[in-house]
Design a protein that fits this description.
The protein has 430 residues and is α+β, with helices and mostly antiparallel strands. It is built from 12 helices and 21 strands. The chain starts with a strand and ends in a 13-residue tail after the last helix.
């Protein structure tokens, strides 16, 4: 295990380096921790906050539009004076409703009052085309090169007024220009659509069951955004000739596959964008395929660096040693085992819910029973609690039965929150 620390950042590698003779695959959990020291040392940058509010006709039902308006004002109350912001009206098109010139305003007492009046004039109408909303947000971001730009996107419905490939193209074009947290209010929106946006744009996705909960959620998202002061970190992975990276996954605090985001920067070197950071810790599962060596020989399987603006801030090593000692090669890193189980847990939940929707109840039961088992074994109490809203668990036998009646909001909460993981402590000495 390695744990060098420099300049307010530490990189720790948890693994069992011992491989049985002929084995080619090695797994490691790489923990990256940034400290308050590093966060404070980063020069202050211009910040831009974009609030994207679904104003389609369906938002007129109940108090959804009123809740969205209150949430927008709550978010504006959180941002410090001097922060630039814009409010985007999202329907089957997109328009900046404040400031009216389509640019951004500087937060102060007067601009907040003007924004409140602009919100008062909005009324639900039209359809839903989220790609258009992202496209306009991208134009706003491009007006502020070098700024940290964060958006909150709220919707209550599906992306029905543009083709899926249009949304996918807009998501792709927006990558690394701004981050975006997504929220769905009610139960008529599509989790996969918001998950795709949040995943690509380094944000979060969640359900807000009722409109009265929106304001507190928006304020919390804004506070989290403001705490991220390091604009971008990058995970750089070097492997020797003959070795390849099979995957890189974020596994703490959520499951997110980063493999397809690799950019090859040199021979045997790939970089993976990690988004903006505050003082926090995240964990990554890196799997490397190596050429086997004779027993007793050690190889460097990967050198993993955390980079900001081309400067290496921290580094960890993944090693491989082949052995004929089965006691050594059979050991499994506790953290590797834990996060492998967490990834399987998220997969079982999502596959189980998909099977349930398709009417394949046998598959749904099997997948969700495995999910219950994994949640219990790993101590993921949040997911275990969410599962009990969808299945009945026999505490004596451990078997599960699908509930005949499931609240749609509970099912969606399980879906979108299934990727959140339970943290396990680093191994001693790491």
């Amino acid at each position: 295990m390695s744990s060098p620390e420099t300049k307010g950042i530490s990189v720790a590698v948890d693994q069992n380096p011992y491989l049985a003779e002929g084995v080619r695959t090695i797994d490691a959990i790489v923990s990256v921790e940034t400290t308050e020291e590093l966060a404070v040392a980063v020069p202050a940058q211009e910040r831009v906050e974009i609030l994207i509010i679904d104003c389609s006709g369906s938002m007129g039902g109940g108090d959804k539009f009123g809740g969205a308006r209150r949430a927008t004002l709550a978010a504006l109350d959180v941002i410090p004076d001097g922060t630039r912001f814009a409010i985007v009206e999202g329907t089957d098109k997109a328009e900046v409703v404040y400031p009216r010139d389509g640019a951004t305003a500087v937060a102060d007492k007067r601009s907040r009052a003007d924004a409140r009046r602009a919100l008062d004039k909005l009324h639900p109408n039209g359809g839903t085309a989220m790609g258009t909303w992202l496209g306009l947000s991208r134009l706003i971001a491009q007006r502020h090169p070098g700024a940290m730009v964060h958006a909150i996107l709220l919707t209550d419905g599906r992306n029905e007024h543009e083709k899926p490939e249009q949304l996918a193209a807009e998501i792709k074009a927006s990558e690394r220009l701004f981050t975006c947290d997504c929220r769905g209010v009610g139960t008529d929106w599509e989790p996969d659509e918001l998950r795709a946006i949040a995943s690509a744009l380094h944000g979060t996705v969640d359900i807000v069951k009722t409109p009265d909960l929106l304001a507190a959620d928006f304020a919390a998202m804004m506070q989290t955004s403001l705490a991220k002061v390091i604009p971008e970190l990058t995970l750089r992975v070097w492997t020797p000739v003959g070795a390849t990276v099979r995957f890189v996954k974020l596994v703490d605090p959520v499951i997110e596959d980063l493999t397809a985001r690799r950019t090859a920067t040199a021979a045997q070197i790939g970089e993976y964008p990690l988004g903006a950071w505050g003082a926090e810790e995240r964990g990554y599962h890196v799997q490397i395929e190596v050429e086997p060596a004779p027993p007793g020989r050690e190889k460097l399987a990967a050198r993993i660096s955390v980079v900001a603006e081309g400067e290496v801030l921290g580094q960890g090593l993944v090693k491989a040693v082949w052995t004929t000692d089965t006691d050594l090669s059979a050991r499994i890193s506790r953290r590797v085992a834990h996060y492998t189980g967490q990834a399987e847990l998220a997969q079982m939940v999502q596959e189980g819910l998909a099977a349930r929707k398709q009417g394949d109840l046998d598959t749904a039961t099997a997948k969700l029973q495995r999910a219950v088992q994994l949640a219990q074994e790993s101590g993921n109490e949040n997911t275990a609690k969410l599962l009990k809203a969808v299945v009945e668990v026999d505490d004596r036998t451990g078997t599960v039965r699908l509930r005949s009646r499931v609240d749609a909001a509970d099912e969606m909460a399980l879906d979108v929150r299934s990727s959140k993981t339970a943290r396990v402590r680093k191994e001693a000495g790491s």
